[in-house]
């Protein structure tokens, strides 16, 4: 169909929310008369709060590949919370939200019902709708922050930014915790395990290297990323991405 499209826009959060909200975003699609569109995304350590149609939902951390098929016409407006920051706004174990869509009112109470959804979805401009999400988050932010939120966020930042942290033990030492305590912290505030998060960032780095043509051979890349051998990297990469490293390289460089 002429004019069929799928689009997304991103908006920076207000300065006073930027520590705990990674981004505000909106998506819309018009596929009437066209074939459905399936999006496939790598696992992500961030919780989203999303408003779409007659639903307001908490999209928990997805520890496996996420896929969504779009058809017809629709839109969504949402906030992507910083990794580890769910406790800044919601009183729930992140692990209980993981790999599922939870009605927002089940977690946040009656102020997250139809009236909030109307304020988010009614404005014609996506940016105005996302601003309504930000205002609601500001009203929900817990002060003082619950114990563990700051440490969980720091652990997530370190796992993403320090390529030398290749084991749970190393990450635990970096935040001055035992591995067992770090596991408990991640259950409460992240949603995936420390091992999962480290593996996710290693695979993201592998994909980026392959895209840039900098992998230098899978055996060397596997060793650099802390894998026992090339076979273990290939197995994890294929499970997460849906294609082997070799096929992924062919697809991105064709």
Would you mind describing this structure in some detail?
With 254 residues, the protein is α+β, with helices and mostly antiparallel strands. The protein has 2 domains: 136 residues; 105 residues, Orthogonal Bundle (Arc Repressor Mutant, subunit A), CATH 1.10.10.60. The protein is built from 11 helices and 8 strands. Helix 3 packs antiparallel against helix 4 and helix 8 crosses helix 10.
What's the layout of helices and strands?
Elements: E1 5-11, E2 21-30, E3 37-41, E4 48-52, E5 55-59, E6 66-70, E7 73-81, H1 94-97, E8 101-103, H2 104-108, H3 114-121, H4 126-140, H5 149-161, H6 168-174, H7 179-189, H8 194-212, H9 218-224, H10 230-241, H11 245-253
Estimate the helix proportion, in percent: 40-55%
**Secondary-structure element series:** EEEEEEEHEHHHHHHHHHH
Radius of gyration: 19 Å
Distance between the termini: 27 Å
User: Could you tell me the strand content as a percent range?
Assistant: 15-25%
The unreliable regions are none
Q: Tell me, what's the shape?
A: globular
Largest sheet entry: 6 strands, antiparallel
Provide mean pLDDT, rounded: 91
Strand line-up of the largest beta sheet: 1-2-7-4-5-8
Give the beta-strand count. 8
Number of helices: 11
Structural class, by secondary structure, is: alpha+beta
């Amino acid at each position: 169909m002429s004019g069929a499209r799928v689009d997304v826009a991103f908006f920076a959060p207000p300065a006073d929310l930027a520590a705990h909200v990674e981004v505000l975003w909106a998506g819309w699609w018009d596929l009437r008369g066209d074939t459905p569109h399936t999006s496939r995304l790598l696992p992500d350590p961030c919780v989203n709060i999303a408003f779409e149609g007659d639903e307001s939902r908490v999209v928990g951390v997805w520890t496996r590949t996420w896929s969504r098929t779009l058809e017809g016409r629709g839109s969504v407006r949402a906030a992507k919370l910083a990794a580890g920051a769910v406790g800044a706004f919601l009183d729930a174990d992140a692990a209980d939200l993981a790999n599922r869509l939870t009605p927002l009112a089940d977690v946040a109470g009656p102020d997250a019902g139809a009236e909030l959804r109307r304020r988010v979805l009614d404005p014609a401009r996506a940016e105005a709708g996302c601003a309504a999400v930000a205002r609601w988050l500001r009203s929900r932010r817990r002060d003082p922050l619950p114990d563990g939120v700051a440490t969980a966020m720091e652990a997530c930042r370190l796992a993403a930014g320090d390529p030398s942290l290749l084991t749970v033990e190393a990450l635990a030492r970096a935040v001055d915790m035992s591995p067992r305590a770090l596991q408990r912290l991640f259950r409460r505030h992240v949603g995936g395990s420390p091992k999962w998060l480290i593996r996710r960032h290693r695979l993201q780095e592998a994909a980026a290297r392959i895209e840039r043509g900098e992998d230098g051979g899978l055996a060397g890349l596997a060793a650099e990323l802390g894998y026992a051998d090339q076979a273990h990297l290939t197995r994890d990469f294929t499970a997460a991405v849906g294609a082997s490293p070799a096929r992924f390289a062919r697809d991105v460089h064709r």
